[in-house]
Write a structure and sequence with these properties.
heterodimer; A: 109 residues; mainly beta; 5-stranded antiparallel beta sheet; 61% strand; globular; B: 113 residues; 7-stranded mixed beta sheet; 4-stranded antiparallel beta sheet
Chain lengths: 109, 113
């Protein structure tokens, strides 16, 4: 079993739909990161969470430390949101990340 | 603008050949990382460095080598001992302790001829 599990692996939505991507982890962490990878491979950091909730534009990320679970929500989805979304956890030692396998999101117009 | 530059974008390796992937950052970050990405798998850590002239092996270091002679530069050499080198390689740098912000290069696709 992977230390970081994402679901779903693939997600197809229609433009305007509300989207949720989930991340569960099995180890103690100091923080959790959400990343976005576009076709072509470049990765952009979206959020770093250690507790609670963060919002940036149409993106919302939440984390529940007790349940070892985080969610990434996209409101009013748009085709330009199509990408792979990756969850990564930072162990308590502080400097190494463990990555989930990613969720491929496709938003159709 | 600050950022990370990886080169080349595509690289082909012949049997028995060592190849070097370049990673340069002008973000003044101490920590730098090399990851390997294979289809259907999460990123896996090859090597990382938290300070100049020091680096540590990650989870899949066999067949790879690195150096950190300058803060800005963290090149990765894929040696002939790496028998399955075909993959997408990503370099990253990080700010904060614990890591608060990650910056990635655009990646290098390495293939075997």
């Amino acid at each position: 079993k992977n230390e970081v599990e994402q679901s779903p692996q693939n997600l197809t939505a229609q433009e305007g739909e509300f989207i949720t991507i989930n991340c569960s982890y099995s180890v103690g962490i100091s923080a959790l990161h959400w990343l976005q990878q576009h076709p072509g491979g470049g990765i952009v950091s979206l959020f770093m969470l250690s507790s609670g909730k963060k919002k940036h534009g149409r993106l919302i990320a939440t984390i529940n430390i007790q349940e070892k679970h985080s969610s990434l929500h996209i409101t009013a989805s748009h085709p330009r949101d199509s990408a792979v979304y990756i969850c990564a956890v930072l162990g308590t030692s502080g400097s190494r990340l463990t990555f989930g396998e990613g969720t491929q999101l496709t938003v159709n117009p | 603008d600050g950022g990370i530059t990886q080169s080349p974008k595509y690289l082909f390796r012949k049997e028995g050949q060592n190849v070097t992937l370049s990673c340069e950052q002008n973000l003044n970050h101490d920590a730098m990382y090399w990851y390997r990405q294979d289809p259907g798998q999460g990123l896996r850590l090859i090597y990382y460095s938290q300070i100049v002239n020091d680096f540590q092996k990650g989870d899949i270091a066999e067949g790879y080598s690195v150096s950190r002679e300058k803060k800005e530069s963290f090149p990765l050499t894929v040696t002939s001992a790496q028998k399955n080198p075909t993959a997408f390689y990503l370099c990253a740098s990080a700010a904060g302790d614990p890591i608060e912000k990650l910056f990635f290069g655009s990646g290098t696709q390495l293939s075997v001829l």
